Amino acid sequence: MKLPPPRIDLRGLQAVKVGVSRFAIDDPYYLVLTMRWPTFLACVFAGYMAVNLVFAVLFWLAPGSVSGAHPGGFGDAFFFSVETLATVGYGAMTPATVYGHIVATAEIFVGMFMTALVTGAFFARFARPRPRLVFSEVAVITPYDGRQALMVRVASRRLQAISEASARISYLRDEPVGDNRFRRFSELKLVRSNIPVLSLSWTLIHLIDEQSPLYGLTAERLLAEAPSLMVSITGFDEAISSTINDRKVYRQEDVRFGHVFDNILRDLPGGFIELDITRIHDTTPVAPPADPLAVSVQESAVRAS
Question: pTM for the complete prediction?
Fold first, then answer.
């Protein structure tokens, strides 16, 4: 039976790839790193059992090759294989013939390779740098500096800071070219695209001016372009001494018009600042300003977030 094409979710950007395999046997390193932990542990256990069963059958097929084992007892042959593969050797059962010594030698040789491969796989999975960034679940379009601006908020879940952090926001949209439709990427210019250190939160701001791909965005255009926003963050994580990269994709239903992010920073006694990451997604509707004073109040609220 032919399996359906694998579905992938690049943190919000869903797709189906035809012509690729979900389990790339020809790329074992990638397979080991990308499978889930329960699947990885199940594969290691299955491989361990399979090797022991193969050598147990070899011992069992030659009665008398293992001293101390019951004649014809497959259980003794299996547990002797386990002891040999682990190079334990309790002394109750030992190879008794040249054949038994040859099989035991081959199993010890295979066991050394298995131990090295499994240890390396565990180390590679644990040592792989993982970003601990949290993005706001929504993006907002709100008044800023007398114009409209797109905003996304991000923070780190780790206590240590991320140095030399840089950000990019790309606008993905469908664009008709003749009888075909192409997926286009447009870079959204940020008010500030990099900061020396990300220790608290960071609000990414893109001004929607005449040069912005979002300028003059309408409901009809949204429907035709089926847009998405891809936000990516790169920086050096001081906690793990490694460069990290993380991203999030916002679809059109994830963008809130006329909202502003709630303030998640609070001054504490002694000069400390409290960051409440649990409220990083919270927004508040902004009423249309009726006078210049209201505009000033809105801008102050935006900057506070």
Answer: 0.69
